[in-house]
Design brief:
392 residues, alpha/beta, Helix Hairpins, Heat Shock Protein 90, 5-stranded mixed sheet, elongated, binds adenosine-5'-triphosphate, binds magnesium ion
Length: 392
């Protein structure tokens, strides 16, 4: 089988060229030798050349200029200049501007030359491999960018859809609710016991649907950054005390205690009071909803970083397994059968997470199955300039 040409050698001295032929006679590749640079370029265009060796001083072209032409045609090919002592300056310049990989001094030592050529062949393979990897990475990146753009578009469409549908549902729902309320108030005539029972059931479901729509709208607005937080520096303690007072009635109805163990005053921090109301209502509401015995305590936890305050809501409920703890803060996540018995839509914690994170804080749960749960969050004590969003 014919050996492939991998090296071209250009020199005006035929005895140098035949020395090259002898040197590489036993190799697995062929060396093409010529005294004519145009012929060398023709072979370069046709063959899969890895190295080009060129003499510096020749009658019709000098080596550096010839290698520059090689570089322009095939930039990956390793270019080497054969020089005498007097040409060293030209060779150095050529290396510095990147036209030449290395140079071979005349007269050369055969072993050294073979080692240099073998290094140059490896260098060529590496350069080609690198280029392939680089091109593959760029292609992958482009694919990823296209995919990313598609996903973003889909996400935008989905958000827009959710928000529009929810808005559109609100109006007919309000009309159903007022009609049911009107009939229930007996303004339109007396009702028998069954009619009151059925209408009350309808009213409960309408209310539930209303809450769900509001939650979805809330969450979509928070996620898209459309909700502007109304930030003021205040003490969280009275807000917590107020939510505790309201929810205490519910807790007592279930035979549960609900206490807070907070200092008289907490450090003043920046927060949106309505949004923090929502957070405490859901966390305390959840604790009451899922606890059968014992009760709930709200307290101010220790936190290593004094730039934050930490608040915890601890219950004596069923506890949450480690697997479930990760899912809880995602939308529509409700765990186990307990939930189907107590109602809710599974958006509460996702909303809490958005609200806390928009304040620059973090929320998490610490729990063991059978040993209750403690939901904790931290909030920064200083304002995050420009971080609270703009309303459209
Ligand atoms: N204190 C808790 N103890 C045990 N499980 C809890 C507790 N709080 C939340 N969970 C679990 O996490 C799920 C998600 O809570 P989340 O507040 O998001 O939704 P929800 O209370 O079911 O409905 P929503 O709050 O939207 O009315 C709950 O359904 C419940 O399975
Ligand atoms: Mg909830």
């Amino acid at each position: 089988m014919d050996k492939q040409i991998a090296i071209i050698a250009l020199d005006d001295e035929p005895n140098i060229l035949s020395a090259f032929q002898r040197l590489f006679f036993n190799e697995s590749f062929q060396i093409f030798t010529t005294t004519d640079y145009k012929q060398a370029l023709e072979v370069l265009d046709k063959e899969n050349i890895k190295i080009v060796l060129s003499d510096q001083r020749m009658p019709d072209i000098d080596g550096v200029d010839f290698l520059k032409m090689v570089k322009e045609r095939k930039p990956d090919v390793v270019r080497m200049l054969i020089t005498g002592h007097t040409d060293i300056k030209a060779a150095e310049d050529a290396i510095n501007v990147g036209q030449v990989y290395s140079f071979i001094n005349k007269p050369w030592n055969t072993d050294e030359l073979k080692a240099t050529i073998s290094r140059a062949l490896k260098h060529y393979d590496l350069v080609v491999e690198n280029r392939k990897l680089f091109e593959a990475t760029i292609a992958k990146n482009e694919d990823l960018e296209i995919l990313n753009r598609k996903l973003k578009n889909m996400y935008e469409v989905q958000k827009e859809f959710t928000s529009t549908v929810s808005h559109e549902l609100r109006t007919p729902l309000a009309s159903i609710k007022s009609t049911v309320d009107l009939v229930l108030s007996k303004t339109a005539g007396e009702l028998n016991e069954d009619q009151v029972k059925f209408l009350s059931k309808a009213k409960n479901n309408v209310d539930r649907l209303g809450r769900l729509i509001n939650d979805i709208l809330d969450l979509t607005k928070l996620e898209s950054g459309k909700t502007k937080l109304n930030i003021e520096f205040n003490d969280l303690q009275p807000l917590i005390a107020e939510v505790v007072d309201i929810q205490k009635i519910l807790a007592q109805e279930k035979g549960l205690f609900l206490d807070h163990q907070l200092p008289e005053k907490l450090v003043k921090i920046p927060f949106d009071a309505d949004k923090m109301h929502q957070v405490f209502n859901n966390l305390i509401g959840n604790a009451i909803k899922f606890t059968k015995e014992g009760g709930i305590t709200v307290f101010c936890g220790d936190y290593t970083d004094s730039n934050y305050i930490k608040i915890c809501i601890k219950d004596t409920g069923p506890g949450i397994s480690p697997d479930d703890q990760d899912k809880l803060f995602h939308k529509f996540q409700q765990l186990g059968e307990s939930t189907s018995q107590v109602g809710g839509t599974g958006l509460g914690l996702a909303i809490c997470k958005e609200i806390i994170e928009r304040h620059g804080g973090k929320i998490w749960v610490e729990s063991k199955v059978g040993q209750g749960s403690t939901f904790c969050f931290i909030l920064p004590v200083t304002e995050r300039r420009g971080a609270y969003g703009k309303e459209e």
